[in-house]
Amino acid sequence: MRHIISILIENESGALSRVAGLFSARGYNIESLTVAPTEDSSLSRMTLVTSGSDEIIEQITKQLNKLIDVVKLIDLAESAHIERELMLVKIKTSHDTREEVKRMVDIFRGKIIDVTANSYVVEMTGQSSKLDAFIHGFEEGSIIEVVRSGPTGISRGEKGLHL
Amino acid sequence: MELSGGHILVQCLKDEGVEFVFGYPGGSVLHIYDAIFHQDEVKHILVRHEQAAAHAADAYARATGKPGVVLVTSGPGATNAVTGIATAYMDSIPMVIISGQVPSPVIGSDAFQEVDTVGITRPCVKHNFLVKDVNDLAETMKKAFYVATTGRPGPVLVDVPKDMTDPNIKVPYKYPKKISMRSYNPVVSGHKGQIKRAVDMLLTAQRPMIYSGGGVILGEAHKELTELTQLLGYPITNTLMGLGGYPATDKQFVGMLGMHGTYEANMAMHESDVILAVGARFDDRVTGKLAEFCPYAKIIHIDVDPASISKTVKVDVPIVGEVKPVLEQMIELIKDSKTKPSKSALESWWQLIGSWRDVHCLDYDRTSSVIKPQYVVEQLYQVTGGEAFVTSDVGQHQMYAAQYYHFDKPRRWINSGGLGTMGFGLPAAIGVKLAFPEANVACITGEASIQMCIQELSTALQYNAPVKIINLNNRYMGMVRQWQEFSYQSRYSQSYMDTIPDFVKLAEAYGHVGMLIEKPEDVRGALEEAFALKDRTVFLDFITDRTENVYPMIEAGKGHHDMKLRVAPGTPVDRELS
Q1: The complex's ipTM?
Q2: Contacting residues for B109 by C-beta, under 8 A, at least 6 apart
Q3: What value does the mean pLDDT take over residues B256-280?
Q4: What's the pLDDT score for residue B497?
Q5: Which chain B residues are Cβ-neighbours of A70 within 8 angstroms?
Q6: Is B180's Cβ below 8 Å from some Cβ in A?
Q7: Are residues A90 and A147 both part of a single domain?
Q8: Distances (CA, A) of B37 to B4, B22, B162, B239, B541
C-alpha cells in the first residue's frame, strides 16, 4: 500500500543522505521525496512516498525515527490528509492545436505561464492522479518535457506536525 | 580558558574521564597529536594498523562498559578503521572515533588523503558529525559521547578538518555537563501495562523459555536476569553475544542457542509455548529458518531499540525500554503475584529438557591421538579457573570457545558476533589487557584469523600488554572448510594456505614467547606454563585435528529442530531426533 511519510528533520548537511542511504541500504523503495526548510530554519520538512506491506512500513518508520537527525514523523496515510503535487509541463503547440491545449488546461484548472510560437508551459497543482490524467490526455510526442515536484501533504484538522 | 582545537579535543577526553585513546597519527591529526604530547593523563596506544585501533577500543568498551576512543587520520586512516567501526556497530558497542579530515577549504577537491569519511561511515555508525566551526567542537564531542553511550549504544564518529585544530586559533573552552538533543530521546522505562501482560503470560506458561542476548550485558542487567530466571525456575539460553549474562555453570542454563547452539537449547526453543526474549534481536544465526522458528510460542520481547522489535519475528508482547529497569519491574510483579508457575508443568518440561540433555551434543572424541580443538578450550577453562577474559576471532575456534568455555560473568567473552570480523581477537585482547592489567586474557584464534591483525604483536610488546594467544591451528579456514564439506561435496576451494608461518619464530621475532604443541598430553602443561609467565605474551600454536567440525549445526535454511549432530566420535552423520 502507498504511504506518505512526513518528516521533520534537522536542517543539517547530510541529513537528506541519511534518509536516502537508509532506504537504499535496507532495500526500501522511494517513489518520491521532497524536502525544503520550514518556518523554523533549523528544521526541514520532508515528504516521502513509499509503498510496502504493513510490516515494511512499520520498519521504515522505526528506522527513520532511529536516525538521530529525525525529530518527528507521521504517516499521513493513517488519517485524513491533503496531498498536492506541482507539475510544470512543456507542450508542443501549433496554430491548429493551441485552442485545444488551452481548453485542456482550463478543464484541469492549470495555468499557461510561458508561450512561444510552438509551445506552452503549463503549471498545474493537484493530486498526483489528476496530474497523471492531464498528461494522458495528450497524444504521444506532443509533450516536450514534464517536471514534477513529487507529492507533499498535510493532515486535515487542527493537529499538526511540529515541535 | 582559551584553547586551540587540538587541545580542546584532548581536554574533552579528559573531562569525559577517558583513560586510553587507540590511534595512529597522520597529516590531518598532527595538531591533535601535538596536544596529546603535552599531557599524560589520556594515554595514547599506538597500534600498527587503524583497524586494530578500532578493535582494541571496542574490546576495551566491551570489557569495561565505558566507551572506547579511537583517533585516526584522514583518508586511509579512516578507511582502515571502517571494519572496526562496523564491527562495533553490529554489536552495539559504545565508541567515539575522532578522524582527521583535510582542511575545510579544500574539502571536495580530492586533496591528498581526502575521503568522504562521514559518507563512508554513515551506514555503520549510530551517528556522525563533521565539525565546521571550532567553537562547536566541545559540544559536538559531548553529543558524540552522549549518543554513543545512551539508548542502544553504538559508535559515533567526529570528523575534524585540520583547520579546526589550528594551534593559532584559540577559542573559549567549556565542556557541557549535560546535553539534550530535541531529535534524540531514547526510551528508558517500559510500558507498565505491557510489563504486566508479559508477567501474566510468563506465569501461566507450560513450557517457558528465557532467551537473552547482548543487550543484557550492555544494559548491565545480568543480576536482574539471574534473579528473575531463578525466581521462576525456568530454563534459559543465551545468544553468542549474551554469554555471561547468566552463569553458564548454573543448572537452569541450557547452553547457547542458534546455528551452533546446544541440542537442548534449540529443541527447547522449538517446543516452547512462551518465550521471553531479553536484549536479543532474533538474528538469522539464532532463528534459523524463520517460518519454522518457535512455532508454538507466544513471544515477549524487551529491547531498548524499537526497531529491533518485530523486525524479523513478529512478537506478541513488545516492551520498549532498557532491560534492567524492565526486569526489575517484572521481578516485583512476579513476587507480588498470586499466580505461581505450575510445578507439575515445569517438572515435565524439565524432564523433557533432561532427555535432550542426555544426547550430550557437545561430546567429542577424548581418546584421539591428535589434539582436538575442543580439548584445548576445555583445558584453558580449567587452567584459568573459568575467570579469564576470552577474546576470539571468527570461525570454528570462536564456536568452540563459546561452547566449551563456560562464562559465569558478563563482559568476559569478547567476540565479533554480528559482523564476524576475522582479525578482531588479538587487538581486542590488548584492549582488554590494558583495562585489566592483572587479569588473565586469552585470545582464542586460528591460523587464518590471527594473520589478519598479526602486526599487533608489536603493540602488545610496546605497551606491556601480555596476552596468551591460543592458536587452534588446523591448517584450514576451518569454518569455510566445514561448509564446503557439508554443502559443496568437500570441494575445498581456497580454504587452506600452502604456507603458514612458523608462529613460534614469529612470536620470538616480535619479542614474545612461542610454543608449539602437537600432542594432547602436552596441552595442559603448555597452558600452565604460558599462564605462569605473567608478564610475557605467549603464542601457543596448537596443531589440531584438521577435519574436526563444529556440532551441533543447523544448516542454513533449516529450523531449530533440524540439527546435524555428531554420533560416534569423529564420524559426522545426520541423526534423526526430531
Answers
A1: 0.92
A2: none
A3: 97
A4: 87
A5: 183
A6: no
A7: yes
A8: 14, 14, 17, 43, 38
